Amino acid sequence: MLGFDISLHKLYAMPLILLISLSGCSSIPADQQSDSRDPYENTNRSVFAFNLLTDDYVLEPVAKTYKDTVPLPAQTALSNHVEWVGLPSTVLNSSFQGKLENATLASLRFLVNGLTFGLVDLMENEDEPEPKDFGQTLAFTGVPEGSYLMVPLLGSHTTRSLAGRGFDFMFNPISLVGGSSASAVRRAETPIAAITFRSNSFNVINQIKYNSIDPYARTRSAYYQRRTGQLADILPEKADIDDGFGAFFE
Question: Is 137:96 a contact under the CB 8 Å cutoff?
């Protein structure tokens, strides 16, 4: 993701391109699948290999430099901003899902922290809203989960969560602000989000990369466990599913 001239609209066009590409790919036979939810495993593993190379040569070294050289208050400010940018989506999706208290908390936090563009959490001692996305809203309305997809640069998704991601992106609050400064901020947000995520998950991701017999299968399993937790209050019948891996990856 870093080191490439990828604007936000191009990056979020990739999921659509991937879906179109997969529509022309044949799924592997069921008896050869390591997971029934992953019919495009061969293609997904190729994408995962590309993502690992990108991580090896770009994300991991940049994240390490970021962790070692950027002052902790600045790291906290950037992480706060990334969370703030996602709040409008949480407000809308919480409303769609009937989580009105969560929508209210997210609205209040967005408005108050908007005074600093989210860089400073002015409500750090208050209740925090639970992040909600449109993929969860689709699940709430009964849309099937679909197949597992490993997306270039964006990582693990299902077809349902991938479809929801584009909707969530449209509600980036910076996109509502005009001018060259806002455009520069929008261009910077994707690498900032990538660096902060990689930095905050540095040790866990490296454990998967370097200490797993099959990093792809473990990443897939961790994604499903994390997603099951995120859907627990929407699809409670799946809340007790646990495939044995810690939740760390989105």
Answer: yes
